[in-house]
C-alpha cells in the first residue's frame, strides 16, 4: 500500500482556477502573449506526395512589399540529425508526403505572408503515389514495437486450435477510418531569437518535452531554449510532441533576431502537419462455449504508417487486458504509405482497438443468446491475462452493474427492431479500459514566501483542469488551504515536468508535488521561515513490476435510427468509470463527458477522406470534417464508482483524460444493431449504411 495523503481539498468540487481568465479571453494562449515586434510566417507546402523538388523560385515572393525572409531547402539552416525524421524539414529536395513543409515566407502581416507563399514557384520530379491501405497488401511488415513501447505481437496457448474447437465462433473484420484531432486552438508557435536565446510560445502538451526535442535539433543547449505553454486550447495528443511547424518557426526566428515570428497553423494545414489517427483494420476471432466462456481471443491489426516516419498504433493492446481466455494472440502489421505522419489521438490504440473488440463481444453475446453485460461479467479476470499480475484495482463488473441499474437495462428486450413511429430505437453497451501509467523524471519545488506556498513544476493544462486539480493535491500534501497555494506550471524554466499525455499527468506531477511537499515539511516544519524552499525529484516506482495498473468503465448508449433516411441520433449516453479517487469532480466530469462526446463524434461523423491518387485529405476543414456539435449531444452523463486506488500513488487516483472515449463508439454501434438488426462493422455510422 502506498503512503497516502489525507483528502481535504481533493474530492471537493472547485471551479477552475482559470475559469474567469478563459471566459473573459484574458488567458494568454500561444499567439496572445505580449511579444516583441510580431512578424508572420506562412509555409510553402509540397503539392505532390512523393518525389523531388526540381526547382524552387522565391523571387516573386521576395518582390512583394512587406516580405522579410524566405526559406527553402537551398538556404535553410542545417539541423542536427534526429531519429524523428518528421522534424528534418528543408534539409533536402525530397518530398515524402503531400503538404510537407518545403519552405516559408515571413512578412509584416499574415496576409502578405500568405500571398507571398502562393507566389513561390515549385517544380517537381514526381514519383508514383502509393496511399492505399489494405489487409491484402503483400508488403505488410511487423514493426519492432508499437506505440508506447508495447510488444508488436503476443501469443499464449494455441489460439487457432482453440478457435476451431470452440462451440461458438465469431470471426469478423472491423475498421476505423483516418481521423484528425481538431482541438479548438490550432497549433501555434511564436518564436523569438534574442541574445543567443530562443523563446517559444507554443501550443504544446509539455514545455519540457518540446525543449528536449527541439534544442538538440536546432544546435542549442537546453538553457538556450525556453518553451512557454501556460494555456493550451486542447491537444488530444496532437500536441504531445512538437511537429515540423515548430522547427520552421524556430529556423525563421533564428534568421531574424529580435522579431517574434508567429506561425499560426491553419485548420487546413493541421490535416497534414500535426498527426492523425491511422485507419485500422482489425480481424477479431472469439471462440467460446455455449455459456459464453471465452477459450480463444485473437486480434490481428493492419494499419498505415508514413514513409517518412514510422508510427505504429497499439490497436490490439487493450485486447491483451480485457478478458480471460487460455488461448490468445494479438498482432500488428503496417503498410508504409506516401502519407502524412500518423500520431496520437485521444486514447491511441485503446480507442480503435476497443471499438473492434467490443462490437465483436456484442456479436458473440447474440451468438450465445446471452445478455451482453452477462457475457462480459463471465469473462472478467482478477489478473492481467498476459502477465498474470493483479490489477491495482479492477471493477469492470461494478461499472457494468451500476450502469445497468442507472440506464434501466433490466427492462431491455434483446430482440432488435423496436420501432417508434419513423424511428428504430435501440440500446447498446460496451466496456472501456485505459492503462493508468506514470511518466518519470519529474521535479517539483515548494517555496514559502511568508504568506503563501509557491509550488512549481513544468506541468501543462491543456484544458483538462491541471491548474485546479494539482493545486488541490498540493494543498492536501502541505495540509494548507487551496487558497494558500500559488501553482506555477507551463514553462520549461520551471523544474522538469512530464508531458500532459497518456492520462499520466496528474499521477506523475501529483506524486512529485506530494514528495516535494513532504520533503519541505521535513526540512522546514509546520511554521517555515519566509523564503524556505525545497526541491524534490519524483521517486522511482516498481509498481508495474507488481501490478497491472488499469482503469475500467462501461458505456451505454440509446440510439434512434430513422427508418426512411438512415439518420442516427443518440438521445442518451451513460458512462460509469472505475478510475480511483476523483481529485476534482467538476473537472473530472468534464474530462469524461468530453471524451464521450468525442466518442459519439467518432461513431457518427469523423472520417478524413483520403483521395488516394494524391494522398490528400479532401475534407480538410470543419465544413467537410464533421465533429459532433451541440445538436448531436443530448443527455450525456458520466459517473464514477466511489473508490480509492491504494496502490497507485499517494492520491489514490488514476487518470481520467482518455478512458471516456474508449468503448463509446462501440456502445453506439451496438445500439444501432439493436435498433435495426443491421450490423455495421465500419465507422462512422453514416445513414447510407442503414438503408
Ligand atoms: Mo493523449 S492521445 O496521450 O494526449
Automatic annotation (TrEMBL):
It comes from the Bacteria. Keywords: Molybdenum, Oxidoreductase. GO terms for molecular function: iron ion binding; oxidoreductase activity. InterPro entries: Ald_Oxase/Xan_DH_a/b, Ald_Oxase/Xan_DH_a/b_sf, Ald_Oxase/xanthine_DH-like, AldOxase/xan_DH_MoCoBD1, AldOxase/xan_DH_MoCoBD2, AldOxase/xan_DH_Mopterin-bd_sf. Residues 24-128 form the Aldehyde oxidase/xanthine dehydrogenase a/b hammerhead domain. The keyword Cytoplasm does not apply. The keyword Protein biosynthesis does not apply. This is Xanthine dehydrogenase. The lineage of its organism: Bacteria, Bacillati, Actinomycetota, Actinomycetes, Micrococcales.
Amino acid at each position: 500500500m502506498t503512503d497516502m495523503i489525507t483528502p481535504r481539498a481533493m474530492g471537493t468540487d472547485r471551479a477552475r482556477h482559470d475559469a474567469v481568465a478563459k471566459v473573459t479571453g484574458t488567458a494568454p494562449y500561444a499567439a496572445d502573449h505580449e511579444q516583441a515586434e510580431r512578424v508572420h510566417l506562412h509555409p510553402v507546402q509540397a503539392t505532390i506526395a512523393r518525389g523531388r523538388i526540381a526547382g524552387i523560385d522565391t523571387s516573386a515572393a521576395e518582390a512583394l512589399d512587406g516580405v522579410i525572409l524566405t526559406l527553402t531547402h537551398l538556404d535553410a539552416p542545417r539541423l542536427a540529425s534526429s531519429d524523428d525524421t518528421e522534424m528534418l524539414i528543408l534539409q533536402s529536395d525530397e518530398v515524402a508526403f503531400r503538404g510537407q513543409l518545403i519552405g516559408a515566407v515571413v512578412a509584416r502581416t499574415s496576409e502578405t505572408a500568405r500571398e507571398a507563399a502562393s507566389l513561390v514557384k515549385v517544380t517537381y520530379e514526381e514519383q508514383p503515389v502509393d496511399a492505399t491501405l489494405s489487409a491484402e497488401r503483400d508488403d505488410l511488415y511487423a514493426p519492432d514495437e508499437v506505440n508506447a513501447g508495447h510488444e508488436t505481437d503476443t501469443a499464449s496457448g494455441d489460439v487457432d486450435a482453440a478457435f476451431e474447437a470452440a462451440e461458438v465462433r465469431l470471426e469478423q473484420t472491423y475498421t476505423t477510418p483516418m481521423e484528425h484531432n481538431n482541438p479548438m486552438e490550432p497549433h501555434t508557435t511564436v518564436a523569438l531569437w534574442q541574445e543567443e536565446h530562443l523563446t517559444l510560445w507554443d501550443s504544446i502538451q509539455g514545455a519540457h518535452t518540446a525543449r528536449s526535442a527541439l534544442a538538440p535539433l536546432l544546435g542549442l543547449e537546453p538553457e538556450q531554449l525556453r518553451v512557454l505553454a501556460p494555456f493550451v486550447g486542447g491537444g488530444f495528443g496532437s500536441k504531445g510532441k512538437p511537429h515540423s511547424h515548430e522547427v520552421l518557426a524556430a529556423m525563421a526566428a533564428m534568421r531574424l533576431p529580435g522579431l517574434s515570428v508567429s506561425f499560426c497553423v491553419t485548420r487546413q494545414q493541421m490535416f497534414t502537419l500535426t498527426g492523425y489517427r491511422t485507419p485500422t483494420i482489425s480481424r477479431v476471432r472469439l471462440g467460446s462455449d455455449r455459456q459464453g466462456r471465452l477459450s480463444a481471443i485473437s486480434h490481428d491489426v493492419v494499419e498505415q504508417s508514413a514513409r517518412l516516419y514510422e508510427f505504429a498504433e497499439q490497436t490490439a493492446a487493450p485486447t491483451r487486458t480485457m478478458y480471460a481466455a487460455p488461448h490468445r494472440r494479438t498482432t500488428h502489421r503496417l503498410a508504409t504509405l506516401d502519407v502524412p505522419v500518423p500520431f496520437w489521438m485521444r486514447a491511441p490504440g485503446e480507442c480503435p482497438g476497443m471499438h473492434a473488440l467490443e462490437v465483436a463481444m456484442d456479436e458473440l453475446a447474440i451468438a450465445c443468446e446471452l445478455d451482453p453485460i452477462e457475457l462480459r461479467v463471465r469473462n472478467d479476470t482478477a489478473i492481467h491475462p498476459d502477465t498474470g499480475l493483479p490489477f491495482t484495482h479492477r471493477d469492470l463488473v461494478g461499472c457494468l452493474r451500476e450502469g445497468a441499474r442507472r440506464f434501466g437495462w433490466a427492462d431491455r428486450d434483446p430482440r432488435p427492431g423496436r420501432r417508434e413511429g419513423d424511428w428504430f430505437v435501440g440500446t447498446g453497451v460496451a466496456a472501456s479500459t485505459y492503462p493508468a501509467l506514470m511518466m518519470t523524471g519529474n521535479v517539483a519545488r515548494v517555496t514559502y514566501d511568508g504568506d503563501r506556498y509557491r509550488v512549481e513544476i513544468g506541468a501543462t493544462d491543456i484544458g483538462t483542469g491541471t491548474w485546479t486539480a494539482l493545486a488541490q493535491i498540493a494543498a492536501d500534501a502541505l495540509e494548507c488551504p487551496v487558497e494558500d497555494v500559488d501553482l506555477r506550471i507551463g514553462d520549461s524554466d520551471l523544474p522538469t515536468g512530464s508531458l500532459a499525455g497518456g492520462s499520466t499527468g496528474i499521477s506523475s506531477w501529483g506524486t512529485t508535488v506530494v514528495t516535494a511537499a513532504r520533503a519541505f515539511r521535513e526540512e522546514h516544519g509546520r511554521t517555515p521561515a519566509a523564503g524556505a524552499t525545497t526541491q524534490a525529484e519524483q521517486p522511482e516506482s516498481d509498481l508495474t513490476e507488481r501490478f497491472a495498473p488499469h482503469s475500467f468503465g462501461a458505456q451505454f448508449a440509446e440510439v434512434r435510427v430513422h427508418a426512411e433516411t438512415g439518420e442516427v441520433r443518440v438521445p442518451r449516453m451513460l458512462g460509469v468509470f472505475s478510475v480511483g479517487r476523483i481529485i476534482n469532480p467538476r473537472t473530472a466530469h468534464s474530462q469524461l463527458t468530453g471524451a464521450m462526446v468525442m466518442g459519439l463524434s467518432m461513431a457518427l461523423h469523423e472520417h478524413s477522406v483520403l483521395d488516394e491518387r494524391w494522398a490528400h485529405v479532401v475534407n480538410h476543414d470543419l465544413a467537410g470534417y464533421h465533429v459532433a456539435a451541440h445538436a448531436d449531444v443530448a443527455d450525456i452523463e458520466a459517473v464514477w464508482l466511489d473508490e480509492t486506488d491504494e496502490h497507485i500513488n499517494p492520491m489514490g487516483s488514476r487518470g481520467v483524460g482518455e478512458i471516456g472515449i474508449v468503448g463509446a463508439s462501440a456502445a453506439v454501434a451496438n445500439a444501432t444493431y439493436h435498433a435495426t438488426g443491421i450490423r455495421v462493422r465500419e465507422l462512422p455510422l453514416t445513414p447510407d449504411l442503414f438503408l
